[in-house]
Amino acid sequence: MTEAQLEPETLRGVIARELTGARQRTELLTDCVDEADLVRQYSPLMSPLVWDLAHIANQEELWLLREVGGREPMHPEIDPLYDAFEHPRAERPTLPLLPPAESRAYAHEVRGRVLDLIERSRFGGTRLLADGFAFGMIAQHEVQHDETMLITHQIRGSRGPGAAAAVLSASAPSPAPADASRLPSEVPVPGGPFTMGTSTEPWALDNERPAYTAEVAPFFIDTTPVTCGAYAEFIADGGYDDPRWWAAAGWQHRQRAGLTAPLYWSRDGKQWTRGVFGATEPVRPDEPVLHVCWYEADAYARWAGRRLPTEAEWEKAARFDPATGLSRRYPWGNSEPQSSHANLGQAFLRPAPAGSYPAGAALCGARQLIGDVWEWTSSDFLPYPGFSAWPYREYSEVFFGPEYKVLRGGSFAVSPVACRGTFRNWDYPIRRQIFSGFRTARSAVAETA
Ligand code: AVJ
Ligand code: FE
Fold first, then answer.
1. Which atom belonging to ligand 1 lies closest to the Cα atom of 148?
2. Which ligand neighbours the alpha carbon of 58 most closely?
3. pLDDT class for 161, splitting at 50, 70, 90?
4. Looking at CB atoms within 10 Å, which of 161, 165, 221, 391 has the fewest?
5. Assign residue 305 a region: left if phi > 0, alpha if psi is -120 to 50, beta otherwise?
6. What residue owns the CA closest to ligand 1's atom 2?
């Protein structure tokens, strides 16, 4: 979605393309397992895949057919089943959910009516319709659930027929570019004010709004996400056994949960292996580390003599243009993400080697800020000054507070439509089933004469 106001005909094309692309992914993720596995719950952290499918359709019906289109509910009795707030994930398999065939039929029927609605819409008159926001919100909702479903596939591993990697058949990303080994380990970012958040990005969600002036002190940030090789050094140095590196709550969690390595890592003699969608392979030292919780990222950073970047630092590194003083939409500028910019959209089912995507570098020189792995920041998930919940409180507002940490940048699993320099994700600091990694930062020490 561009920042420029689009003619209705152009906007129609953009919306149809985003919704159709999201649906192709949803179908891949749900057609590659049999009925029994669609209704199975693989982890109390995740819904059965069939819940995601019907929930995607239900949100689309709610916002596009009912709110925008003024239609009557198609099946009002099922609404509560797919309301994420009425039933926590752990409870969902016990609900009288629509079976797979009915879920598919429901999603198909809703989508057919939505495509008709797009043809008739003028994209104006109400805030929900302006710039096609409601359609953009729903496209983003579906691709967010596509990421959630891919997480379920990773948890599922090789259990059951049709291990995800084979069915989703993603190829490997290219090897790191020639200059990757010569990159500086960190790059400087100037202190001072910059514009954080947005008031102009048409499909930005409420928690990214409004734009405001944030101030940061000068700092350095890692050029790339922390790699598996660097993380393995932390492990080898006894990092998991030394409470000095861990936040108090993190150490407690590390003890209680018995953490010794990232999720899906195991020790095979002298080398680390990792489970990837049901396959086991040697850990690749130059790949960004994946499946670490905030506490692990925080401990690694302290061990390295560094710290996690704040959310404002991350965003300044990603967006700030010192020449104009303006914040850009993406690290590479204002143009829509292309496959040369970032590893997004489940094109590959893994992060690309550190130093990849030189065309997607930020002006400060940092690479892979967008795509590959979600990056933990040190910040709590809080509203920006002037925030107002829109169009519903349950997207962001009910989560604000110190119990959630912000992640930035987007992983290989999220589509470009739900990924930009201002986009905010959040989760509990103990969570690591998500496609999470991190990079570190340090404050620039003022030079004394
Ligand atoms: C923004 C990823 C935290 O999955 O809980 C999906 C996105 N919100 N349906 C989540 C979301 C409603 C949300 N995250
Ligand atoms: Fe949802």
1. 4
2. 2
3. very low
4. 161
5. left
6. 425
Q: What are the pocket residues of ligand 1 if the criterion is a CB atom closer than 6 Å to any ligand atom?
A: 141, 144, 148, 395, 425-426
Q: What average pLDDT does this structure show over 398-414?
A: 98
How much distance in Å is there from the Cα of 144 to the middle of ligand 1? 6
Sign of CA dihedral 333, 334, 335, 341: positive
Kind plus residue range of the DSSP H or E element containing 267: strand 265-268
Q: Which residues contact 20 (CB under 8 A, 6 or more apart)?
A: none
| Residue ID of nearest Cα to ligand 1 atom 10 | 144
pLDDT classification of 346: cutoffs 50, 70, 90: very high
Res 158 pLDDT > 70: no
Q: Would you say 140 and 417 are in contact if contact means Cβ atoms under 8 Å apart?
A: yes
- pLDDT above 90: residue 167: no
Identify which of 147, 148, 294, 404 to mutate to test ligand 1's pocket (most ligand atoms within 8 A of the CB): 148
pTM beyond cutoff 0.90: yes
Residue 99: is it exposed, middle or buried by C-beta count within 10 angstroms (0-12/13-18/19+)?
Answer: middle
Instruction: Name every residue whose Cβ is closer than 8 Å to that of residue 322 and which is 6 or more positions away in sequence.
Output: 190, 363
Contact 436, 372 (CB under 8 A): no
Element housing 113 (H / E)? helix 100-120
